[in-house]
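re: ur msg from earlier - yeah i can do the D-galactaro-1,5-lactone complex, just paste it... oh wait u already did. ok heres what im feeding in:
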Amino acid sequence: SAPRTVLLTGAAGGVGTLMRELLPPYGYELRLLDVAPVQGAPDAVVADLADRTALREAVRGVDAVVHLAGISLEADFDKIMAANIAGTYNLYEAAREEGVRRVVLASSNHAVGFTRRPREGEPVVPVDTPHRPDTFYGLSKCFGEDLAQLYWDLHGIETVSVRIGSCFPEPTSVRMLSMWLSPADCARLLHASLTAESVGHTVAYGSSANTRAWWDLSTARALGYDPQDDSEVYAEKIVADKGLPEEGSADDLYLGGHFCVDPPRWPH
Ligand code: NAI
Ligand code: 15L
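and the outut:
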């Protein structure tokens, strides 16, 4: 049966704040968790993903988890390790112990960030393209996807790993014209991921129906996702303001764009 009570981790973050508003109209009752206090939500669980007892209590009785919590940019490996790698493991263990059957996992384009972006006329990037992280951050998302697969194979916990492009109210760069996931489409995709039947472990790219999309939305659409937005309405202004990425730059070459070279480690 369709999930009703959902734990939303990372509820104080950018996407979490948007989803707190946009998911309840689909009929969900949200329980919120974040290590930071969640503005205007006195009932939110304030806990670190390192706190296994708190996680177990937080998942008790929910039908599903939308797992957004974690470090969302490149950082020192030890920090990524604690929040994203150990933290995601702790969350899945809590889900297993409490019998939660479905997780929607925030993966990222940076799990495949060093993949060349398609040039005009080339096929879009398929969902089964090999992992090719661009950062320790992206590597932690690869781990999350593999953990999700393991928990499906070992324990029958279903996951949709959503490789989110760029989920912000508006696109703000030329690269984001390809990557943008509008907040309303994000809610549509999370809802589809929560309600689709028999997902096993499914990897889906998360973007709107962008004219300039670089990747294949077929697995997302197969879940029932029907994106309604297209970044193209912002294109003229963004291209005029920012100019096209320099030929041969990371933003020009790779799905992960500037993450591939920031911080600089070796010349590309
Ligand atoms: P954000 O950084 O705004 O929010 C992340 C939240 O997780 C924060 O509120 C933070 O306090 C919380 N958090 C961090 N470490 C924690 C810990 N140890 N225990 C408990 N809570 C912790 O990130 P945003 O943009 O909202 O992204 C949400 C998720 O989606 C992240 O997992 C991110 O990696 C992923 N994502 C986001 C994209 C985007 O365009 N916004 C693109 C691709 C992936
Ligand atoms: C991500 O994974 C980040 O969490 C988000 O802040 C954006 O930088 C996004 O990718 C992006 O690639 O634009």
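cool cool. Residues 10, 12-16, 34-36, 48-49, 68-72, 83, 87, 106, 108, 164, 166-167 surround NAI (ligand 1) (CB under 6 Å). ping me if u need the other ligands too
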